[in-house]
Amino acid sequence: MPRDIPAPTIVNPLRQLSLEQLRRRTSMKWRTYPEDVLPLWVAEMDVPLAEPVAQAVRDAVALGDTGYPYGTAYAEALADFAGKRWGWDGLAVERTAIVPDVMLGIVEMLKLVSGPGDPVVVNSPVYPPFYQFVGNMDRQVVEAPLGADGRIDLGVLEDVFGRVGTGAARPAYLLCSPHNPTGTVHSAEELAHVAALAERYGVRVVADEIHAPLVAAGASFVPYLSVPGGGNGLALLSATKAWNLAGLKAAVAVAGPDAADDLARLPEEVGHGPSHVGVLAHTAALRDGGAWLDALCAGLDDNRRLLADLLAESLPAVRYEPAEATFLAWLDCRALELGDDPAAVFLERGRVALNSGIPFGTGGAGFVRLNLATSPELITEAVRRMAAALGPTALDRR
Ligand SMILES: Cc1ncc(COP(=O)(O)O)c(C=O)c1O
């Protein structure tokens, strides 16, 4: 391209689709509740597909290229993305494997480093499927709750590691980085401390980094495998959250240098699980979807500010700290005195669907999770409905 032609700017993907268009969608977010409910719950985004992704899918369909996945293009695109975005050049393609999706990848990694009945530590409140998937694979979930500031409480983590790290069991730690639901971006120092504790107590770390591309302006994501001592960790990454590809399943498992032998034991058939079209879509997203991602992240920055303003204005008793990552807002509704499950009240009386905090484990009661990956208009309408759910006295509860 000649130098004086600027690259086309990409408009905010969060402002592209009307409510009418979104209601034609058939996915979980849009079909679980009746039509009069505004859904801002499950982690789907109200965006059109990024053009490079749409093109990759169209090309595959046009060619009938819908067979089984093959090769390392996805891992190569991820390694390149990690170098450019996070300044990390340690993602070695030969220490990666494609897996069906992040949650099934987590299950496979936990099978590699722990055994039946072994403890898996999580930082509650945390993404509810952590409890379900880990429980269903015959491991025991052990909570190390986050601190009141939403950050990993390293003292609590050490206590829990000390408890689970004794005996013959092979304990593991399922790190959510960035953290869902709080959106916390763990710092390099915190992660290095985690790695030191894991080493001291013989705990293996599996890091879920699915939200890593979705950082706010000014924040920097740090890959767990890049920190000192993180070399025997395993991480799961994908383009699913940042490009809204949950319907195009595929993820990458990455081993640090000292976990390469573990990943080498991954059964070959696990790599048959991801969708080939999914792999193509994720690869295109990571390789060519950078400008779209930047436009999305800028839109999310705006939405966080908007939500903070709207809540301050019409629901000042709700505590909200705009997060450094993810498109999720974790709202402390305890001062509203709606009990443990304010989401049920917002749904019933306000006709707005948010996630209840309860399934997120200890620390979730009285909270709701709101999905910010929608238009400013729908966020405004959601807050209007939340306030309406509380009736005219809501504004007085300061
Ligand atoms: C932390 C976290 N991990 C995993 C997932 C699901 O990923 P996948 O669909 O690839 O299993 C989500 C989805 O919201 C998530 O927030």
TrEMBL record:
Q: Which GO terms describe its molecular function?
A: cysteine-S-conjugate beta-lyase activity; pyridoxal phosphate binding; transferase activity
So which domain of life are we looking at? Bacteria
Which Pfam families does this chain map to? Answer: Aminotran_1_2
**Leader sequence segment:** none
Broadest EC class assigned to this enzyme: lyase
Tell me the cofactors it needs.
pyridoxal 5'-phosphate
Q: Which residues form the Aminotransferase class I/classII large domain?
A: 68-385
Swiss-Prot/TrEMBL keywords: Lyase, Pyridoxal phosphate, Transferase
**Its Enzyme Commission number?**
4.4.1.13
Query: According to its UniProt record, which protein family does this protein belong to?
Result: Belongs to the class-II pyridoxal-phosphate-dependent aminotransferase family. MalY/PatB cystathionine beta-lyase subfamily.
Q: Can you name this protein?
A: cysteine-S-conjugate beta-lyase
Taxonomic classification? Bacteria, Bacillati, Actinomycetota, Actinomycetes, Kitasatosporales
